[in-house]
Design brief:
The protein is an alpha+beta fold. The chain has a single domain (33-134), classed as Alpha-Beta Complex (Aldehyde Oxidoreductase, domain 3), CATH 3.90.1170.10. Helices cover 21% and strands 28% of the residues. The protein has helices at 45-59, 112-125; strands at residues 33-37, 41-44, 64-67, 73-77, 90-98, 103-108, 130-134. It has a 4-stranded antiparallel β-sheet with strand order 3-6-1-7, with helices on one face. It has a 3-stranded antiparallel β-sheet with strand order 2-5-4. The longest helix is centred in the middle third of the chain and has 15 residues, at 45-59. The termini are far apart. The relative contact order is 0.31.
Length: 138
C-alpha cells in the first residue's frame, strides 16, 4: 500500500469532527481537469490505492495524473470478543479526512471527452459525492 505514512510521531490519535471550513487545496494546480469533493467525509488508504490503480490503467501513458490527498490519520479498533478497558486498540486502517471543495485528483494530456469519461468511472467507485471541474471552457 502506497498511501500509508512511513514515519509517524504518534501512532494513535483521537477522533475529531470534520468542520465545514474549506481548505487550501481547492483549485486546479497541475492538470486541466479534476474531481472536487462535494461533501465532508473520509477515504481509506485502500480506496486511494484503488483510485491510483484506476487512473494508471485508464490513462495508459497518454496523459498524467496527480492525486492531491494523502491518508494521515490512523483509525484504531479492538479485536472481536475483547472486554471493555485494557487500553486503546491497534491501528486498523489509515484514513484521509476530506472537506467540501477539496481537489481529489487531476488529469492532463487527454481530450476533455476522454477525461470526463475516466473521472465519471472513478466517481462511481468512491463513497463521496464528487464534482467534475476543468480549466478549459466546455
Amino acid at each position: 500500500m502506497s498511501f500509508i505514512p512511513k514515519n509517524i510521531k504518534f501512532p494513535k490519535v483521537q477522533k475529531k469532527k470534520i468542520k465545514n471550513l474549506t481548505s487550501t487545496n481547492t483549485e486546479l494546480v497541475f492538470g486541466t481537469v479534476g474531481l472536487k469533493i462535494a461533501e465532508n467525509g473520509f477515504l481509506t488508504s485502500k480506496q486511494l490505492d484503488m483510485l491510483k490503480l484506476l487512473l494508471s490503467k485508464s490513462l495508459k501513458k497518454q496523459g498524467q495524473y496527480w492525486i492531491r490527498v494523502f491518508s494521515h490519520f490512523p483509525v484504531t479498533s479492538k479485536p472481536l470478543e475483547v472486554r471493555m478497558g485494557k487500553g486503546k486498540g491497534y491501528v486498523d486502517k489509515w484514513i484521509c479526512k476530506l472537506k467540501v471543495g477539496v481537489i481529489l485528483c487531476e488529469i492532463s494530456g487527454l481530450s476533455l471527452k476522454n477525461s470526463i469519461q475516466i473521472l465519471k468511472k472513478i466517481s462511481l467507485k468512491l463513497p463521496l459525492l464528487t464534482i467534475f471541474i476543468s480549466k478549459v471552457q466546455c
